Amino acid sequence: MIDLQCHLSSCLEDIRIEMAKKVVAEGVHTMVYAPIVEEVSPALALTEASEMEADFHKHGLSLTVVPTVVYSLTTKITEYYEKERLMTLQQDGKYVYTMLTEDVAPVAVEQLIYELQLKGLIPILVEPEKHPGVMMNPDWLYQLVKKGALVQLSAASVVSRQKISKFCTQLIDAHLVHFIASDRTNKNMQLRAAYDKVGQDQAMMFMENAERLLKDETIIRYAPERVKRKKFMWIL
Predict the structure, then answer these.
(1) Cα–Cα distance between 191 and 155 in angstroms, integer?
(2) What is the dihedral of CA 10, 15, 18, 22, to 10 degrees?
């Protein structure tokens, strides 16, 4: 099993190794280390991933760590590209991790996604279910997926007992989700629980997509639909 988000780098070594043992016991053999680029540069991400993997192997854990970074969908992403090519999941690959921010208008985000596609890149929106704009207007996410973006939900959101879990189910039912991974800010590994919750067929598709992603292959995706739901107030 592949976990497309890794959160073990910030832990103390003893805690990191214990958590890694639990991850391996659940069947995970590969993890993606994807810090935010404003906090960790691509070069540092490469170094930290290599050091983590070596540490795991030293403790007898067969766990591969794949490095990348998450880029905020702001004009800075264009600046990063002009200075050096964006870091993709595979060297010279086409998939790039991105995240929505609250200070960029939807029309600007759509333009940035379009510009990435012109460069031969496919953006993966990481944890958009947490974005207030998406919560209040899921049709925005529908438009982004329709225009070529891929979506990765947080496993913690999927299994949450709060309203966000229901929202995740609605996004999945509308074919607006292509991957599930551990939560970017939550060190509780809940990927297996999330797969159990979405059901076998859906889980198999997400796991297949994770495999394809790391091979830089075409992702399984179905025609997106608009989310059908009654309006309700979000408590943020």
Answers:
(1) 5
(2) -50
Q: How far apart are CA 31 and CA 89, in angstroms?
A: 12
pLDDT tens by residue, 62-95: 999 999 999 999 989 988 888 888 999 988 899 9
Task: Catalogue all structural domains in the chain, each as residue range(s) with its CATH number.
Answer: 69-214 (3.20.20.140)
161 is written with which tokens?
Answer: 């007992």
Report the alpha-carbon distance of residue 164 to residue 161 in Å, rounded.
8
φ, ψ for residue 99, nearest 5 deg? -145, 145
The C-alpha atoms of residue 176 and residue 108 are separated, in whole angstroms, by 20
**In this structure, are residues 137 and 131 in contact, taking their beta carbons and an 8 Å threshold?**
no
CA distance 143 to 158: 22
Task: Record the pTM.
Answer: 0.92
* Adjacency order of strands within the sheet including 30-33: 2-3, 30-33, 64-67
How far is the C-alpha of 140 from the C-alpha of 34, rounded, in Å? 25
- State the alpha helices, DSSP H only, in the chain: 13-25, 42-58, 76-83, 106-118, 132-136, 138-146, 155-159, 163-173, 191-198, 200-214
Report how far apart, in Å, the C-alpha atoms of 138 and of each of 112, 119, 123, 127, 159 are: 19, 27, 18, 13, 19
In the three-class reduction of DSSP (H, G, I as helix; E, B as strand; rest coil), residue 117 is classed as: helix
Cα distance between the two ends of the chain: 32
